[in-house]
Fold this protein.
Amino acid sequence: MMDKNPFKHMRDMLVAKPVPKVDVKHKVMAAIRAKENKEEKVVKKKIGLLVTVGMLVGASSVWAGMEMIQLKNEKGEVVLKLKQMSMQEQQQKMQQLPPDIKDQIKNRNAEIFKQLDTGEQIVNGLKPGEAVAIYWQLTKLQLESNPNSTPFVDVRSKPFTYTTWKDMEQKVGHLFKVPTEMGTDFKFVAGEAIYLPSDKYDEKAMKEEQERTKKEYVVQTIPLSDKLRDAEIEYKGQKGSAFLQVSILGDKNKSGGTLAENLEKVMIGDNEAVYSTFAPENGDTVHSLEWVKNGTNVNYSLRAKMSVSTKEELLKMAEQINQAK
C-alpha cells in the first residue's frame, strides 16, 4: 500500500512555481483524491495532467454547477462536502488551449511527476517513521516562465507498517477503531499509519548546499510530528481486497472533489454516507463509501472493485466498521 493522494504535492508544486500568462486558481482543486490503485500510473498521470489544466487555466468555470453532496452528523451539522468533477470537461478544456500553453502545461506536468517519483524513491529508502524535506532547485523551464518563481520544499514521511490490527492499535487505537474481520471473509492483512512531517527544516542551509553542489535537489532529515495524516488498511477475501482509509478531521468540515461517475447519498445505520463509482479506462470499476462517524471527527473511506464486493456487501462492511470498539 502506498500514498493514494499525490495531487496535494502537485498542487503545492504548481502554487510554488506558477507557469506565466496563466491564471492560477488552485483553491478549486484543494482536495482531489485518487480513486484508483497506486500502481495504475498511466491512469494517474492522465488524471494528473487534467488536474494541472484545471489548476493553471482556472477550473472554477469548469466545475461550476456540478453535483455537490453534503453529509450531516446526528446534530444536523455539515461534516463533509463532496463535489463531482468531470475528466471529459477538463479534456475539452485542454483541447481549446493555444499550442504554446498546451506545451507549457505538458512540460510542467512532466516535471511535477518526475519530482513526485523521485520523492517516492527517497521515501522508500527511509525507515518507518522517518521524515525528510526535499529542496528542489528551480528548473530552466520555471525560470524562463517566471523569473520570480520560488523553490519548492517537499516534506515527506515513511509510514509505520503493520501486519495485525493488534500491533497497529498500539499506535492509532486512541484515535479510531476498526474490526479485524468484516463481511463474509475479509480479514485484516496489512495496515500503515502516515504521520505528518514537522515543518522544522532549514531552508537556508538547503539552498546554500544546492547552490554550492549544483545538485538537482537536496534532502534534509527532519522530525516527525505527532499528527496522523491518514491510515490505510487492506482487508483480503477470496475474491480480492477491500481498502479502508481513515483520517481525523479538524474543527472545520471536510471539502473535496471526486472524479467518480456517480454519487449517491446512502445511510450506514443512522450515519449519512456517500456512495460513488469510478471506472478507469483500463480496469475494473471501483466503488466506495465515505462518511464521518457520528459523534466523532473520524473520516472513513472504504473502497473495493465491484468484482470483489456488491454494493450491499460494502454497506454491510461499513456498518461493521462503525460498530467496532
